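Case 446 in the screening queue. Each case pairs one protein sequence with one candidate compound; here the compound is acetyl coenzyme *A. For every case the pipeline is the same: read the inputs, emit a complex structure as tokens, and attach any notable structural observations.

Predict complex for case 446.
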Amino acid sequence: MTQPSSTATAAALDEGNGSMTLSAPASGGSWDMQIFPGTEGPSVIDVRRLYADTGLFTYDPGFTSTASCESKITFIDGDEGVLLHRGYPIEQLAEQSDFMEVCYLLLHGELPSPKQKQEFEHAITYHTMLHEQMLNFYRGFRRDSHPMAIMCGVVGALSAFYHDSTDINDPYQRMVAQHRLIAKMPTIAAMAFKYSIGQPFVYPRNKLSYAENFLHMTFSVPAEDYQPNPVLSRAMDRILILHADHEQNASTSTVRIAGSSGANPFACIAAGIASLWGPAHGGANEAVLMMLEEIGHKDRITEFIARAKDKNDPFRLMGFGHRVYKNYDPRATVMRKSCHEVLDELGSRDEPLLALAMELERIALEDEYFVEKKLYPNVDFYSGIILRAMGFPTSMFTVLFAMARTVGWVAQWTEMIEDPNQKISRPRQLYTGPVRREYLPIDQRS
Ligand code: ACO
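Case 446 output:
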């Protein structure tokens, strides 16, 4: 990167007055900027007029200090390890609520009354089937396709089938699209799994809960009766709650950016799924299991910890660290407890990978490098172990994450569309490439 050419100093930060003055000694200029407070968390400096007033852009690759939007949905205090949805702590929602209620809360801002909950559940339940022609899409994929590849494709293709819910300017169509996406995602995910193992697709059952229905479509076969295990259904529901939203993460920001151009909601969610797939984001739970398998034995933990600390080695401790949490991820605490419950229920309390994970966590949390950099287990550290115990292959882990996060994406997309200040997202850049030069015909180049 180029060296700074001059420095601008914040001469006066007056939070009481809600303003900040920026001075640039080189030009002798001075500009006032407003500060907007949030209900929780840091205030923001309004830089919207910065370029018009000063000719300067801000520079913040990875958005480490940039609020890209105003939102009322989710709040995270990464230093304290706090996660609130519409003000409610994630621990309370995971313990006392259920996924359908959390969906309603994220979408509508308040917990539902009994009648509202019943109506919402009904609306979701009666959108779970896929258009029958969509099944042809699955058959076009290679048998060994990653289910995330299938999910990206099939979700994007929803816009080709549900034309009556793609008009983003119609509130009714937006609502139908919300319901369809939340309702069809488990069906799409389960079918991706069935296709990959060569079993027949299983259609949804309306009498089952959201989590039970997903387990039914994933694990039942037409030849047998299937009764969802209540402990596993509850654990599944909790996993969905824990992944439902996480404010402006990479995939959610992707959904917002895609949607800011006016793209239809199905296309936007497909973009979010693509972003989630990466190992630094939703792909981490799959990466955690692969890492634990690679470590293989407690005796090798120190070797891998040393690799994670070695700047010349690209290896990172998967499931550790987070852009926002500099404390224990509160979702990881719930997930850890759930992991024990599931393994107890399945009689696999002695699952060697769990023992290995707990030992790895213990050693890392005592290691100076991880302590100093505030690297704690994140939600993905334990989720993979539960999912594997429940019978999911690792390739399905991120698919489950996408299924759960769909409500968050949809809620954030809706909030953006309904925001009167909404503009197409169009970041600026610091250009450091060649300055203008004249084209040289190929026969004149050496
Ligand atoms: N193992 C070893 N070192 C790490 C790890 C890790 N898991 N995570 C961060 N660090 C180190 C970095 O090397 C860096 O060190 P440096 O300051 O000496 O250069 C420092 O900690 C800060 O890390 P950044 O990469 O700058 O932090 P950032 O906020 O950009 O990254 C991320 C966060 C991507 C989650 C990172 O911690 C990581 O790669 N973790 C492993 C993957 C993972 O678990 N992802 C799941 C995230 S949760 C989710 O998406 C649901």
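Case 446 observations:
- The pocket of acetyl coenzyme *A is lined by residues 280-282, 284, 308, 316-323, 373, 375, 378-380 (CB under 6 Å).
- Strands lie at 9-14, 19-24, 29-36, 44-45, 74-77, 82-85, 88-89.
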